[in-house]
Specification:
The protein is α+β, with helices and mostly antiparallel strands. The protein is built from four helices and nine strands. The protein has helices at about 10-20, 35-50, 65-110, 215-220; strands spanning about 5-10, 115-120, 125-130, 135-140, 145-150, 165-170, 180-185, 195, 210. The strands form two sheets. The protein has a five-stranded mixed beta sheet, with helices on one face. Strands 1-2-6-7 form a four-stranded antiparallel beta sheet. A hairpin with a 4-residue loop joins strand 4 and strand 5 (about 145-150). Helix 1 (about 10-20) crosses helix 3 (about 65-110) and helix 2 packs antiparallel against helix 3.
């Protein structure tokens, strides 16, 4: 049967899971105020040092002698503060733009507060073993042109992670992140095949619906080396 999709409200556990991946949206990034504060304190210390120097017994200076040096010191301090603020603002803006580019879809999902509940009924199963990690990658047939890609666990056994005839998948709609996957019904069995050199759907996307003809996959993964 084709995939059926219903929109449901996100649970607190799913919200926490998605927030941990997407990070917390930050506002102005107040960390950049520290350089300004340091420069302001340095300028203030210099100001006090020059004004209070006569009280320390180092000799008295007239106001006319002190004023030009004080003005020059404050001008330099102000210039340094402005430069630090300009640099900090540019760095903060770039950081916000990068965070939005990377985590924006997760933030949108958190704001919407809904998930897509996808129900599947599979026709067949093929499995391939990842060459680096040895983890089985399950291809669950939806129809002649589509299959669901699901990552297994090393040493999969007959438990909740074993692919079965039906599945309920909860997915964040914008980021497409899989929040949970629960199998039900009759267990499907397939010995993982070494799939070196064959077309792949992009294994980084667990829970991806891959549009590919099923029969060529059967022929490719059905080959065994002696």
């Amino acid at each position: 049967m084709p995939v059926t999709i219903e929109s449901r409200r996100m649970t607190p556990a799913e919200r926490q899971q998605l927030g941990a991946i997407g990070g917390v949206r930050s506002g102005s990034g107040a960390w950049w105020a520290w350089p300004i504060l340091i420069c302001a304190l340095a300028a203030g210390a210099l100001f006090l040092q020059r004004w209070l120097e006569p009280l320390w017994g180092a000799g008295h200076r007239s106001a006319d002698t002190l004023a030009p040096a004080l003005v020059a010191s404050l001008a330099v301090g102000l210039f340094v503060v402005l430069i630090a603020a300009w640099v900090a603002l540019r760095v903060s803006r770039a950081a916000r733009n990068n965070r939005r580019r990377i985590f924006g879809a997760y933030w949108d999902d958190l704001e919407a507060g809904t998930v897509d509940e996808e129900r599947y009924e599979f026709l067949a199963l093929l499995s391939a073993r990842d060459g680096e990690t040895g983890v089985p990658i399950h291809l669950l047939r939806i129809d002649a042109q589509r299959c669901l890609v699901v990552f297994g666990e090393p040493g999969d056994g007959p438990d909740d992670t074993q692919p079965r005839r039906r599945a309920l998948l909860r997915r964040a709609p914008r980021s497409r992140h899989v929040l949970s996957l629960r199998f039900e019904g009759e267990a499907l069995a397939s010995e993982p095949s070494d799939a070196l050199g064959w077309q792949t759907p992009g294994w980084e996307w667990n829970g991806r619906v891959w549009e590919v003809e099923w029969e060529p996959l059967v022929q490719r993964l059905g080959q065994r080396e002696d």
